[in-house]
Amino acid sequence: MSSIRDIVVQPPHTATWLVHIDRSMWIGGVRGLMLQALHPLAMRGVWQNSNFQEDPFGRLRRTADFVGRVTFGSPAEAGAIGRRIRGIHRTLRIDDPDTGKIHRVDDPELLLWVHCAEVSSYLSVARRAGLGLSDRQADRYLAEQRHSATYVGLHAEDVPGSRAEMDDYFAAMRPRLKVTPESASTVRFLLWPRLPAGLRLLAPGKPAYFPFGALCYYSLPAWARQMYGVLPEVPRSAVTAALRTFRTAMNSIPEQVHDRAFMPYTREMLAASRMRLGAAGYDVSRGLRGLTDPRRWPEGTPGVT
Known about the structure:
GO molecular function: oxidoreductase activity
Number of domains: 1
Strand order of the largest sheet: 1-2
Strand content: under 5%
Shape: globular
InterPro entries: MPAB/Lcp_cat_dom (IPR018713)
Order of helices and strands: HHHHHEEHHHHHHHHH
Number of helices: 14
Helix content: 55-70%
Number of strands: 2
Radius of gyration: 19 Å
Structural class: mainly alpha
């Protein structure tokens, strides 16, 4: 008989499910990009090997697809996207003009930085925005994310697996971070992006994006905001209130409407996940988000601790 982990990589009773199904992830994702940009070599890797400047939304949606597959996808789907990403990274190089050296994109140090910037952002934003995650559950989330890191080529034992370990990691990394022309440009761009050709019809509504970008910026750690110095400081209470308002509004959107923000193949993966979970006895009448309610799980399923 198949276990739930044969159906989805991270079952509904994991801390990962609680964080990654929450719509505050959109803020966390952009915050993660802003944080990643403070590593000069990692930022140059993005700048030199992607079309980020032309299509930042595409990168965010591709990241959402990866996170979705290694959370809600089947082990086969997660394994496939992991192999694809590792294969792409193996072929890419970074030209460092400061040293004249050529670096691999799949350098473990760079992969670890990107991972930690992402998952710490997801966790920090979700908790601040009102997701009721205990300290123990927050540590559990980071421990679970060690497995996710293996899909991009990291070893689980090399990845911070608790809040204390993550704090120590960032403390060790801070002397190596700085604002480069590329990182400064990235933050300005994320605050006021150029819309890709496919979204030009939304241009009249572009001014509405700035509050979202600013909220992502203000959710950064104080030391990161001080390094950038792009926007004037505002009261922390105002940022927290705005995050909670954003989360409440986004979480009220019906799942079938919200999922339109994802790429078609991501939507197909999520639909397949709902079907597998339904067949396994979960009540998916309220979608994947509804499975944050243990009453919709099969009898005897363990809770999130």
